[in-house]
Task: structure prediction
Amino acid sequence: MKKKEEVRKTQIMKAAYNAVSELGYDNVTLQHIADNAGVSKGVVHYYFNSKQNILLELLESITNQIYRYELEAIDKHQTAIEKLKAYLDAVFISPQKNRKFYSVYLDFLAQANGNEDYKRINMNFYENCWGIGKEIIELGKKEGVFRQESDTLTNAKMMRALIDGSLIQWLTCNEEELHQFYKDSCINSILNLLQYSKE
Amino acid sequence: MKKKEEVRKTQIMKAAYNAVSELGYDNVTLQHIADNAGVSKGVVHYYFNSKQNILLELLESITNQIYRYELEAIDKHQTAIEKLKAYLDAVFISPQKNRKFYSVYLDFLAQANGNEDYKRINMNFYENCWGIGKEIIELGKKEGVFRQESDTLTNAKMMRALIDGSLIQWLTCNEEELHQFYKDSCINSILNLLQYSKE
Amino acid sequence: MKKKEEVRKTQIMKAAYNAVSELGYDNVTLQHIADNAGVSKGVVHYYFNSKQNILLELLESITNQIYRYELEAIDKHQTAIEKLKAYLDAVFISPQKNRKFYSVYLDFLAQANGNEDYKRINMNFYENCWGIGKEIIELGKKEGVFRQESDTLTNAKMMRALIDGSLIQWLTCNEEELHQFYKDSCINSILNLLQYSKE
Amino acid sequence: MKKKEEVRKTQIMKAAYNAVSELGYDNVTLQHIADNAGVSKGVVHYYFNSKQNILLELLESITNQIYRYELEAIDKHQTAIEKLKAYLDAVFISPQKNRKFYSVYLDFLAQANGNEDYKRINMNFYENCWGIGKEIIELGKKEGVFRQESDTLTNAKMMRALIDGSLIQWLTCNEEELHQFYKDSCINSILNLLQYSKE
DNA sequence: CATGAATGAGGGTTCATTCAT
DNA sequence: CATGAATGAACCCTCATTCAT
Result:
């Protein structure tokens, strides 16, 4: 693939991300995406062949970007607790970015029930996220700061469930200022889940 | 409202629930709903004025039904722990019913970002759910089985986040047999969240 | 099928016939057909489900109509020669009608190469036409006016080849007044093909 | 015109012939033609200015080639009967080549009704074909093997009608092995048309 | 000369909504 | 009340044509 093609695809992908986040999955049209990218409708087809393809690549692209960002974040720290906090900082990045990502991601989750391609891509994202969770929990166990008897993978899944559930709740509650609240609550709950009793 | 009208609306509502759960929010047409209800397309319009209205009432109807069912479940028990288990039993009612409800509910959550009416209805559902959570947690604190220092509403919100996050995760993982796993994990995690350390 | 539906389909079919004869197979749009029928574009889909269906039914309809007309024509006469002339009268019905039918029919023949449905319908038309030819030739043999030694089906096929070839030639030559010439030449040639030498 | 240009145009013309014979007149795109020729879309436009032009030149080219081939064929023989058989051998050259040529030619005939350029080119082809017929028939008359009283041009036209009608019929009947049957039947019918009675 | 990226008009099709019966 | 025929706007997609590189 040539460089120009790469640039164009990225440009259109970003436009699609903007368009879906603004209009929602089923209201988005190729025209919207094209307008957002500042190109003609034909160009979008030229590079992606179909609307379905754009959306597939969009889901793959944004979940991979999120994952890589989270991965980088935890790699910068050494201890389990620090990594956990860095992870949550990465996840709860900012109200604006969370709103954008989760509104689009929620659309895809809804579509996934009935679309095996979306399911597969999301499954991959889940496994990546669980992987981060496992890494942190295992380290914490080794360090002796997390309980030994709990199942690592199970807790990793619960961690992600809590995170997704929290951000979806936050998104729907429509109050920007609750972002910090959900972030703090999430961290506390996860620590409760994993740590020895602090008493 | 006459009795016949009531009957008709209920019939159409059920048809809409079936149709949306089978086809997904954006693939559903009035024709599908009408077919599923065994009536003509005109009837659907006659009683609901617009497709949007059907879907609005559908969201309201199913969230209220779920809430009432959960409320009844916890009312049958006396202690916090029993109520909590009854609540989770009601929430994780069965793979079939969870699949149906959560696939439709997820569609609505996705739509809610950009539709104030959906947001309002879902907000109401959230508050109802938090109410249940609060009731259980407060009772548990009174009984002395749950930690006193934690914030009740916050924990109620985290409970619901964990539940929704778990069922969404389960839905997308596409493995029916994980239903029990997510239910058990959810209960354990919530207990961890609320109880004194068991050591 | 209700009467009204029948009427509508006929109306649209006629409009499609007009539109294809005027614009040609690949230039015809649903809008043209709808305009010609005086209805909206949606109606055409309502009754035929797809453009392809309209055209399939059109081919079937016009070939069947032509066949029935030809059949009626020869049934009104008793002798082979009279039947043959009636057949040719029916085939060379008028410049206007021949132009219309053959321009549309030629379009379908061209499409048939690569469309099994069209092929099947045309094959049926061919067999009907050969049937007429066979009936006339067999009668002529019985009457003793046509040569005995020739193969009936082969001659029936050649008769139709001559007719189609003539009308296609006439159509392309673009001179209305040659219609009579081709009709006469066709009759003479067919008689030459079938009869004993007149010397 | 430079040599390179000539080569390029021939190359594209052949590609167009292949493409139209495979895909049909209305399904062919410039991309198909370009792909088939192993060049870019731009080249096709550069040498022909428009798609319409390619097709025009294609019709002219293939009809001229067929005509020259038929002409050469009859020039190799001396007597009318021999020339006639050579002509039919040239026309019914092979199932493969006939299928290719007639499927494309039929497409053009269908288009001709409404396109004066195609009509003109085909008219020229007709006149060339009639010329061959006339040459053969006149020779036969001179030789005394064909009937004197018949009109030469008329019979030449009927000959061509029979040939075209036969090959179109053969094409649509979709049975390769009938090729020989139609060839034989055509020769016999033409001889019947032209010769003195054999009794 | 040659490429293929870009355009945008126009196609078939879907479907919520309307309304005559 | 109930039906479903009719409408037409809006969608995705195709492709001849143009033109910068």
